[in-house]
Specification:
InterPro entries (chains A, B): N-FG_amidohydro, UCP029730
Strand order of the largest sheet of chain A: 1-3-2-6-11-9-10
CATH class of chain A: Alpha Beta
Organism (chains A, B): Paragemmobacter aquarius
CATH superfamily of chain A: Zn-dependent exopeptidases
Protein name (chains A, B): N-formylglutamate amidohydrolase
Distance between the termini of chain A: 51 Å
Keywords (chains A, B): Hydrolase
GO molecular function, one term (chains A, B): hydrolase activity
Oligomer: homodimer
CATH topology of chain A: Aminopeptidase
Low-confidence stretches of chain A: none
Mean pLDDT of chain A: 96
Helix content of chain A: 25-40%
Structural class of chain A: alpha/beta
Radius of gyration of chain A: 17 Å
């Protein structure tokens, strides 16, 4: 039997509606893939994971009484926020870095990584959402990401990006709440958008079920250590709560 | 551990691109649910399953060298073509029949049926599609259904309905091919359409991945026995092939 890398689920009995998803939580490079020929610096860089995202997600989890699911291995082995046929699922190059172990991925190897990493992640996330939906606790899906402050040599001014797939309601409500409640540079669909194929998890797990959803992107220099991640969680938990309250108000009014 | 009712997969090593899905193949009422208080007549009627659909699907499977996945229990226990929060997932009434065992489904029971029937079906279908997508055999998803010739006392003239979700390309191509190659009354989005929430399987498994997809509905008096199902498979296999060829032509031209 092939090895399967199950995602980690925390606080599964949570009473809150929010389901937090962290596809890029880890920069682990387990066997049989190993380091894909990357240097130590590359394995620590934003191409391998979203630095700070897991710590922030855990801070949000406890404040929102949310359930949290996160990936157990580097996105460079398989990026769980990409479909198996997307180049970005196992990229041969990411920003300014080559990924030697991904330069010639055979169809068999692509299938094996899909089986080992993507399917267990997706099945667990989907099951989590569906069990809650069935039991009447309609989930709100929020994915937690971080982005690099400098990309291809260019500095990014945005600090907090809120990205939506087909239904913009929750993303707009969270961005508006951030504008009212924080001094962060908060922007909709920045530093990228669904057009860049970054909303795969939302598109597969929330959109078809009509579940409220949004993708949150925090600039990683703002969540560089545990203290900063806690502070950011304390700042953003009320922002997310206000966003969810706003769409509940809209749903009642319609 | 809770019981899980895995779907049946046939011809998994198929070389063809088509993945056939039959959510309403079975009128089995296994324990722990049993007959839900239905009469023998009701358990044989179209409310419990799609009569003839599985025989037709198997005939198509061999002619198209397609893989086939079908549900192992009646749609009245859990309708795998409905999300867990839809009333139709475990309907208390279907056409002119009451379903006693579904009149008061508790949240716990709804969750248990979702876990036992919907999740195994969905995980298996999704896995089937993703493994093929990863290996470069881009799937074409076709669901096979039958409908009753008389509904709420009214006769239906349509014989072959082709229903689409967000992407109409394959459905239109198959309907057009049927019009050219057969004398059937073939209609688009009849006897119902995505607006009636009948395209759940397509919406979850094909639409988010951009996979070509269509839902085929055959009037069940035309596939009432094994010979008729074989004859219909012989008629429709070239129609489906022509539809798939047409969208491949369109994809190359664009």
């Amino acid at each position: 039997m092939e090895q399967r890398f199950a995602p980690v689920i925390e606080n599964e009995a949570a009473k809150g509606r929010v389901v937090l998803v962290c596809e890029h939580a880890s920069n682990a490079f387990p066997a049989p893939w190993g380091d894909l020929g990357l240097s130590e610096a590359a394995r620590q860089a934003h191409i391998a994971w979203d630095p700070g995202a897991l710590g922030l997600a855990r801070g949000l989890m406890s404040r929102l009484d949310a359930v949290l699911i996160h990936a157990p291995a580097s996105r460079l082995i398989y990026d769980c926020n990409r479909a198996p046929d997307m180049p970005g699922a196992m990229p041969a190059r990411s920003e300014v870095y080559d990924v030697p172990g991904n330069i010639a991925v055979s169809p068999e190897e692509r299938r094996a990584r899909t089986e080992a990493v993507y399917l267990p992640f997706h099945d667990a996330l989907h099951g989590l959402l569906m069990r809650r939906l069935a039991a009447g606790l309609r989930p709100v899906m929020v994915t937690i990401h971080s982005f690099t402050p400098v990309y291809f040599g260019k500095a990014r001014a945005v600090e907090f990006g809120v990205i939506h797939d087909a239904d913009p309601a929750l993303a707009v409500a969270i961005r508006d709440a951030a504008a009212r409640m924080t001094r962060m540079n908060a922007q909709l669909n920045a530093p990228y958008s669904a057009a860049d194929d970054v909303t795969h998890s939302l598109r597969v797990n929330a959109t078809p079920y009509g579940l409220p959803n949004a993708m949150l992107e925090i600039r990683n220099d703002l969540i560089a250590d545990a203290a900063a991640q806690e502070a950011m969680a304390a700042l953003l938990a009320p922002v997310i709560n206000m966003g969810v309250a706003e769409i509940q108000k809209q749903a009642k009014a319609s």
